[in-house]
Every structure is written in structure tokens, then in C-alpha cells.
Amino acid sequence: MKSPMQLGPLMIDIDSVELSAVDRDILQHPLVGGVILFSRNYESIEQVTFLCEQIHSLREETLLIAVDHEGGRVQRFIDGFSRIPCMQALGEVYTEEPQLGLVYAQQLAWLMAAELRQVGVDFSFAPVLDLNYGCSEVIGDRAFSNDKQVVSALALAFQEGLNDAGMASIGKHFPGHGAVAPDSHVAIPVDERPFDEIFQQDIYPFKALIEAGMKGVMPAHVIYSQLDDKPAGFSEYWLQTVLRQQLGFQGAIFSDDLSMQGASVVGNYEQRARQALNAGGDMALVCNNRSAAEQIIDGLKVVETSEKSLQRLLAMRPSPVVTKEALRETARWQAAQEIIGVLA
Predict the structure, then answer these.
(1) Fewer CB near the last or first residue (10 Å), C or N of the chain?
(2) Pick the CATH number of 10-343 from 3.30.365.10, 3.20.20.370, 3.40.50.1110, 3.20.20.300
(3) What is the pTM of this model?
């Protein structure tokens, strides 16, 4: 029997390629509103399609299903999916032939989104809007470029491609992760630059995509020490003052994974989730740690999702743009394959 509750503010994961009884139970908890899939959840197109159908059937207000599927070294589903090149490859094309770079970005974003949508995934956490300053290994070739205008142009085209397939875009990692060397998965990065530099450089692509209708943002687990002592995803200053008020962002804010080391300065798992939501986040991610998810659920007990927050999350659902024929038989899919061949 489907659970009638609305979307909760937590996005969690599952362990395998199918739902266990324990998974079914926790995914029906009112604090849960979404599921993020990883490589361990993928075996084949048929399997993941059935898995998504099962997840969507659990609740009357269906859970959001997400995945990190940017391309390059961050692509969770491989066999049976097109191998999307890293975003830096698009930046290199743009440098030589700007118009061709924009076409490639739009086509590859459409391809990524169309393939994910066909199996039932609602959205990918993409595009990366960080600038590649050459010091961050965790960002590196995931970024389009070190030039804010190149990043903005390609990301706008990428957003258009996602939207063509009915998928929302989520820019990350606000306000910019590219200028710090440490990896926030395993360290606590600190960016000591002044606000004006961050605003003029790193925030530039976020501003451009927000003005073009971007529906989601993921903040960085980075402390910008001249502005706040908390990482951006836990900071009212970054989420409310800058993102909401100065930039006018009206979409959904998704925390980065609360299990990452960069989040540890905020406290235990419950404190991390509470602070991420209190600071202005709409959905908090807790990944690869079921014990942490359970601690958060037990600690928060009940969190009322505001009507505004709920509407932002519901807006992340894909629009009903679907191809009526087999995806791989469409001219656009074939054209996108040719682009992959050129960039390989």
C-alpha cells in the first residue's frame, strides 16, 4: 500500500540493486523525500528501470530519484549507457570553436538526461559550475574551464540540453569549490579569499544560470573564512543572504553529502542535518552510511517541510517530455554519439 505522506527533507541511499525490506521501511519514513543511486545500485538498464519503478511506487507523493552522472570520472551507470566525456573536453572545444562547443554541450546534456529519464531517474546533480583553478584534484576536469565566461556559456547550453529532455539542472558547488586544494570528502577545505573576488569570479556562472531558470543548487562543504566559520551548506549567510536575497534564487537547495569530512565541523549527523535545513536547505543528503541516516531520522523525529520548500522540491520532478520512439533510433541520439566519437 502506498504511503500518502508528502516529501520529507532527507535524501538517502540503498545498498544493492534491489530494495530490501529494510529499504522499503525507511524509504516510507515521513522524513525521507528522495533516493540517490550509486554504481552499486546498477546492474543493467532493465534492473535499474525496475528499481526506479519500485521506488516510485512506494509513496503516493513519489520520492525523488537522483544520481551523480556528470560524465567523465563521475558517471555512476556505465554498461548500456553512453559514456559522457568530462566537461573540460567541452571547454577545450569551446576555446577553439565557441559555437561548436555550445552545440556539443547542449547535445551531450540532452543525451545524459534522456538516457537517465528512460530508466526512471528524475535528475542528475549537474552541471558543475566550479572554476578550475588548477589546484583542486576533486574538481579538475569536472569543470568546463578556468574562465568564468566560458563556464557560464557552456553551462547555459548544458542547462538547455537538460531542459530539452525534461530534466532540471542543479549547479554545484556553490559558491565555488575550485580554488581550494583539499577534497571535502576527506578534509575540511578553507577558502581565504575575500567576498568580492568570489562574487566576481566563482559566483558568476551561478548568477547566469539562476537568471536562466536553474531549479537546483548544491552548496560546497568549504569554509569561506572571511565570511563565515561554517561551510557554505550550513551557512545562513551563503544560503539566505547571498543565494536567496542577493542572487534571487528561488529553487531547491540540496546539501552535499553529510557523511563527508567537510561536514564534520558542524557536529554529529543529526546536528549536520538540522543545521543544513535551518540554514535554508530544502533537502539534506546522507550517503553511504545507513547508520548515519537512521541517527538523523531518530534525532530529528519530525521536521515540518514548509510549503515553499515542498514546492521547490516538487519542481524538481521531470517534465513529461519523452521520445515516442526508441531513444537509440532517434536522430538526436545518433548525433550525440558522433560528438562522443569526436571527443573520445
Answers:
(1) N
(2) 3.20.20.300
(3) 0.95
CA pseudo-torsion sign 20, 62, 298, 221:
positive
Q: Which of 130, 256, 257, 282 is catalytic?
A: 256
The predicted-structure confidence for 219-250, as pLDDT tens digits, reads as follows 999 999 999 999 999 999 999 999 999 999 99
Letter string b/e over residues 12-41, b meaning 16 or more CB atoms within 10 A of that residue's CB: bbbeeeebeeebeebbebbbbbbbbbeeeb
* Catalytic position from the list 25, 185, 229, 298: 185
Residues in Cβ contact with 221 at an 8 Å cutoff, skipping those fewer than 6 apart: 173, 184, 188, 189, 231, 232, 233, 256, 260, 261, 262, 263
Helix axes 148-164, 98-119, angle to 10 degrees: 40
Compute the CA torsion angle 209, 342, 76, 8 (nearest 10 deg): 20
Between β-strands 69-71 and 74-75, what pairing exists: parallel, antiparallel or unpaired?
antiparallel
Task: Please say if 69 is a catalytic residue.
Answer: no
28 CB-near residues (< 8 Å, 6+ apart)? 3, 5, 58, 59
Asked whether 228 and 155 are in contact (CB, 8 A), the reply is no
